[in-house]
User: Which sequence fits this backbone?
């Protein structure tokens, strides 16, 4: 049988993959995808806890699933705005490489 | 129970006395490994389109894991919103910007090593915390009824306890829509 720890481990590894993507890659769009990976890793551990800690009626704790629903909604809105910003950035600077976007650098 | 319940359409299967414990475990590891491999492929690939397609497969595996946790509604939403809408948006933008595979640049090895070290130590920390808690070694308790109509239950909680946050989310999406239109209309100089 799978334990809670298995799900949490998978979630933690996925989060670490996303985190390393944000730190190591320098293409803005890939960084954005890695952010999505991190959000989904958090969702996985939320759903695992929802299934683990049953409510009084013996069903999963649906508060956690509603929180996951909110996270997915906010992430979708965030993707739309973020990609619009990337397109605007690309129009202005003709690049998606973070090392070329250094006009704020001292 | 779990994924076996998700894939069995015959209601008799739920009440059978033979244990179905081995199968969910096997499917769990299958989908978990698929998800992690393609998640790593998102970060490793140099071609943005290959990264985006790996992300789709990663989200499909994640959705299967949600279903193995009896969260069918969240699993379906994951496929619809992420694998459907968000990834189409990503692919559209990649095609719009006409991005090619990244050319190799001189790597800043100190920054690369530092970033890798930080991410790796985060992973070690997470695994140490999970390994040290007693709760993580417990299996999932059985549900009271084999069939959860979780769309109804999520809906009751969403429109009952969380009605105000739900409407705030609606305003957030409206603001995001207006923001995207403004960003794409005006030339940013």
Assistant:
């Amino acid at each position: 049988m799978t334990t809670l720890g298995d799900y949490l481990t998978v979630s933690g590894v996925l989060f670490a993959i996303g985190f390393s993507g944000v730190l190591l890659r320098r293409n803005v769009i890939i960084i954005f995808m890695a952010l999505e990976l991190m959000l989904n890793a958090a969702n996985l551990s939320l759903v695992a806890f929802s299934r683990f800690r049953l409510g009084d009626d013996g069903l999963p704790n649906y508060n956690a699933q509603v929180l996951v629903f909110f996270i997915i909604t906010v992430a979708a809105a965030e993707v739309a705005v973020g990609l619009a910003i990337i397109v605007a950035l690309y129009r202005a600077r003709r690049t998606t490489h973070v090392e070329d976007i250094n006009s704020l650098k001292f | 129970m779990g994924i076996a319940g998700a894939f069995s359409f015959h209601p008799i299967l739920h009440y059978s006395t033979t244990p179905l414990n081995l199968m969910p475990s096997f499917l769990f590891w299958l989908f978990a490994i698929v998800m992690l491999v393609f998640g790593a492929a998102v970060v490793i690939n140099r071609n943005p389109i290959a990264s985006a397609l790996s992300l789709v497969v990663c989200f499909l595996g994640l959705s299967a894991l949600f279903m193995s946790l009896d969260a069918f509604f969240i699993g379906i939403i994951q496929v619809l919103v992420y694998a459907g809408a968000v990834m189409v948006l990503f692919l559209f933008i990649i095609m719009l910007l006409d991005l090619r595979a990244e050319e190799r640049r001189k790597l800043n090895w100190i920054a690369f090593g530092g970033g890798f070290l930080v991410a790796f130590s985060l992973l070690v920390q997470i695994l140490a915390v999970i390994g040290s808690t007693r709760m993580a070694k417990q299996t999932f308790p059985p549900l009271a009824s084999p069939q959860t109509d979780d769309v109804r239950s999520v809906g009751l909680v969403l429109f009952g306890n969380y009605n105000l946050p739900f409407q705030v989310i609606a305003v957030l999406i409206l603001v995001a829509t207006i923001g995207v239109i403004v960003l794409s209309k005006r030339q940013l100089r």
Remarks:
- The two ends of chain A are 55 Å apart (CA to CA).
- Chain A touches chain B through 75 residues (CB under 8 Å).
